[in-house]
Amino acid sequence: MALADLHVHSKYSNHPSEWFLQRLGASESYTEPETIYALARQRGMDFVTITDHNRIKGSLELVEKYPDRCFTGVESTAYFPEDGCKVHILIYGLDREQFARIQNLRKNLYELRDYLKAEDLACVVAHATYAVNDRLSLEHLEKLLLLFNHFEGRNGSRSPLHNDSLSMVLSQLTADDIERLEQKHGIAPWGEMPWKKGLTGGSDDHAGFFIGKTSTRVVAKTPAEFIDQIKQGRLLPQGRQNNFQGLTFAIYKIAFDFSQHKSTAFAHSTLSDLTRYLFSEEKLSFKDRLRLNRMRSQKNNHIYQSIVRLIETSRNLDQDDIDTRLELLYDCLSDISDQYFRSLLESLTTNLEEMDLIRIIAGLSSSIPGIFLSVPFFSAFKHMFGDRRLINSLVTSLGHVSEPKAKKILWMTDTYTDLNGVSMTLQTIGRLADETGYGIRILSSLTAAQQEQNLPAASLVIPPLHSFKLPHYEELTISVPSVLRMLKAIYEEDPDEIYVSTPGPVGLLGVLIGRMLGTPVKGIYHTDFTMEAEAIIDQPEVAALIEKYSQWFFNQFDTLLVPTTEYMELLKKRGYRHRHMELFRRGLRTEHFKPQPVTIGKSCNHSRLLYVGRISKDKNLDFLIDVYRRIRQQHAGISLTIVGIGPYLETLRTHCSDLPDVTFTGKVPYPDLPELYNRHDLFLFPSTTDTFGMVVLEAQACGLPALVSNIGGPREIVRDGQTGYVLDVSSTQGWVTRLEELLADLAHGGNLCRLLGRNARERVESTYSWNTILEDMVRPEIESVRPLRHRQPSPIKRMLKFASNMMVH
């Protein structure tokens, strides 16, 4: 058996496709052909070739020097003439004349294929599912299956998503598949059994790291025999596949090589010094050691300490143990980047409060190295997954999969341990995922104190860089997560769909990373922050700013899930995109929230009213107290329990200081809520800003008749006159009148209230079952995935571009 890495680049490949390297002005590779030969042989390769982009010089140099061990190769950039879509074709065993002819023909892929066939040249489609110029479609892939018989089944620079999906499809091709595609596209396939595809392996190395780590195994004793085996398709691909950390590592190495070849701003920057320490095998100079000691002595400078650890760690590792180096380097680089961002966030928090514009600008400028350090990670991440939807379409079209797997869902939120409907909903989903084994993970950024709570095992916690209290929502702690650690966690999860519940830092990163991941991203409109701001803050310009941001944020999603049809119409009128809205089905643990044998009030004078929720002015609680005052005039013994915490709590206490039967319980533990509901007779919820009203659903599940506002989401939970009442909040009179009827019923045995409660319970059980809802969520979709919409560059992408310009120029 013989091994060869069939896809390697040398210094003669000089047009990088990676955005970061383009911004630097770097070439695609700086590896000497002789270095490629030495590393390949050292790593067990029997034969060596070089496949530079549209250049043959490197492979000719090796063939001339090592004719018994090397053969020529090229990676030819070819074009579908109908639309200019680029593809890369690996060609082996060609001479100078054939190369010159290929250069002329490659602008028309069909003519190039015919020439390769006529010349009997060994050729392989490289990384077929990777869109070189964003034009690649399922139809192009289908045509490639007809035009060529050999494909790169394991590309060492691509992820398993690309390699394994393509290999699976190719291994399952049938004669009927090829016949169908031939009729569809009118292209005659190559060979007598064109459904039998040969698969090769190659590292696609550009940086000199992974040469020989991915290869092709054949039976051959000479270069000519190896090439003949490629033609026959008698091949076995093997070896390493890549991840975004490996690709980032390679990008940094190329940037370092570039800095050694050309004097630029990058070549004289701190980042260039850092890459020199990382990638140069030379011993540290006396000047370098002095500099390292100075950094080591500054114990309070966390960035310096991380750099020292990075340099010392990298130099103590085996140069050939790539994956161990990648893991340790990623941790160190994450720490360094986090320190830059943490310093920025802390300075912004202080200086924004003091409106110190000079320090704000200085803080932004000082964070640029951290931004620049992070750019290649994001770029590499997108390279790994950018074609997911195309791959899914290929698998759906040609993959003969008997049973599609259930979807993996990553659910991202900025609030997870707080007392609100979003947190309670997500904790419930997390616990159901624990019990049922559904592939649902809940990701949030939590402080150490928040992590001490009893969280579901399905939780995925990212450490925060910085945490702060949200103005007017002081009981909420907003955390900004470690960006690179979050990137790695999501990469390892590799979800099929992402759900985003909140428009905070975690939600923003969820949108960004979901786009790079190529997965459908679904947003959930839990909270109407604009209406809450209008009710809480007497500053119209603030509410307008919140509305503008909310529209931008919630319009980024492939699908926007809205709790009620009323809110879908309301958001449509306010300028939100309506066509991508769907109803968000909410559920409840009905085995937890259920009626309990608690005695209801025997007379109207001892009836118990209940409100549960956030104690905030936007919840219309002043209206609730007005209603209570009026009904109390006729029924002095009636009580009102107000459960929850919030910024309006102390003000409301003061307003109720003359009402001895109004009780404020504060926060009640979630497991104790069913008993609380069952100890009361009627549930009152006059809020006009809730998009759904989970507490209303909980009360109804416990058999409690509910009186809710005619504005907002809760009105769709309550069936007016059947499970409770939907009442006009423009006047208290309607509420008082309805309450008097219900109190009179309670005084005479409560037959009506029991009927309303029984109906409420039955409706919740039939309509709001979490088990059914989650089963539908994870059920695999049979139809092909919708294509991504084209968008303008996001603010984050513009920021990264700005950072690179600053560092390069």
From TrEMBL:
Start and end residues of each Polymerase/histidinol phosphatase N-terminal domain: 4-80
Record-level Gene Ontology MF annotations: glycosyltransferase activity
SMART domains referenced in this protein's UniProt entry, alphabetically: POLIIIAc
InterPro entries xrefs: Glyco_trans_1, Glyco_trans_4-like_N, Glycosyltransferase_grp1, Pol/His_phosphatase_N, Pol/histidinol_Pase-like
Pfam families tied to this protein: Glyco_transf_4, Glycos_transf_1
Protein name per Swiss-Prot or TrEMBL: Glycosyltransferase
Source organism (scientific name): Pelovirga terrestris
Lineage summary: Bacteria, Pseudomonadati, Thermodesulfobacteriota, Desulfuromonadia, Geobacterales
